């Protein structure tokens, strides 16, 4: 596998993880039975990914963006940013997502998750110096990611076909609508900052996330597009079902087990 291939594959791992952590994802992966799996995969792909030709073109476009811009910037950031500061930046942005987690927990009628999100935001903001330190996890309050795409799924809205979006990566109509709602309509602390500061913070958030994925660049193998699609669909099913999974016809590659467990 060449170095460029590693770079491109890491971009899509980054996209998959951007708004939700990977913990527990390996539980979704089912054993692979090659003799009966191929036909099932072909049928499932035709149903879930009817625009595969177009999606692959968008995937290649996004690879170019990563190759020429995102990864070089992230690599430079990783080189000069002290590890403690890098972790603090990650914690800060993760803490802000608790506002989203709280809102969507309430919309999904999950009071326990809402309490956890409130507790995490309170502890990390007050005792974690504005979210720079994740003290909530030490207090046995791990994150419970919830977004509006999950909320729509909770209330029975179908996902629609798989879509590869320019710059944004894997999605579907339901998750894209949820993304837009979470990031444009729900009030957040971003509203308290002036526009230039918001743009700078968003860029820092993307670069920080991409830099954190550089060590994971060699985990994806085989057809990159299929691997990313399968991992994304599995991850979203895992989140929407709160960890309750069924056999997934896309879970057909033993290599996925290795990558997901390493995360």
TrEMBL record:
Would you say which domain of life the source belongs to? Bacteria
An example GO CC term for this entry is: membrane
| GO BP terms in the entry | intermembrane phospholipid transfer
Q: Which UniProt keywords apply?
A: Lipoprotein, Signal
Pfam families, alphabetized: MlaA (PF04333)
- PANTHER family membership: INTERMEMBRANE PHOSPHOLIPID TRANSPORT SYSTEM LIPOPROTEIN MLAA (PTHR30035:SF3), LIPOPROTEIN VACJ-RELATED (PTHR30035)
Give the family from UniProt.
Answer: Belongs to the MlaA family.
What name has this protein been given in UniProt? VacJ family lipoprotein
Q: Which organism encodes this protein?
A: Marinobacter confluentis
């Amino acid at each position: 596998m060449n170095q460029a291939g590693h770079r491109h594959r890491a971009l899509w791992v980054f996209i998959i993880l951007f708004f939700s952590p990977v913990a527990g994802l390996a539980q979704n992966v089912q054993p692979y039975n090659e003799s009966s799996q191929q036909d099932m995969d072909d049928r499932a792909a035709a149903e879930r990914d009817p625009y595969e030709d177009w999606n692959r073109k968008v995937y290649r476009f996004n690879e170019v963006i990563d190759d020429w811009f995102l990864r070089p910037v992230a690599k430079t950031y990783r080189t000069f940013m002290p590890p403690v500061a890098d972790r603090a930046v990650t914690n800060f942005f993760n803490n802000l997502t608790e506002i989203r987690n709280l809102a969507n927990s309430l919309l999904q009628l999950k009071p326990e998750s809402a309490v956890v999100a409130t507790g995490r935001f309170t502890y990390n903001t007050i005792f974690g110096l504005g979210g720079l330190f994740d003290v909530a996890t030490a207090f046995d309050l791990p994150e419970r990611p919830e977004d509006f795409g999950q909320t729509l799924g909770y209330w029975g809205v179908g996902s629609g076909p798989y879509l590869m979006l320019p710059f944004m990566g894997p999605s579907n109509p339901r998750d894209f609508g949820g993304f837009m709602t979470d990031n444009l309509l729900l009030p957040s602390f971003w509203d308290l900052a002036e526009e230039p500061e918001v743009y700078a913070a968003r860029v820092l958030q993307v670069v920080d996330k991409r830099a954190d994925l550089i060590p994971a660049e060699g985990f994806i193998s085989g057809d990159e597009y299929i691997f990313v699609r399968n991992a994304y669909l599995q991850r979203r099913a895992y989140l929407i079902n709160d960890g309750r999974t069924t056999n997934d016809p896309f879970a057909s590659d033993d290599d996925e087990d290795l990558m997901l467990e390493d995360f």
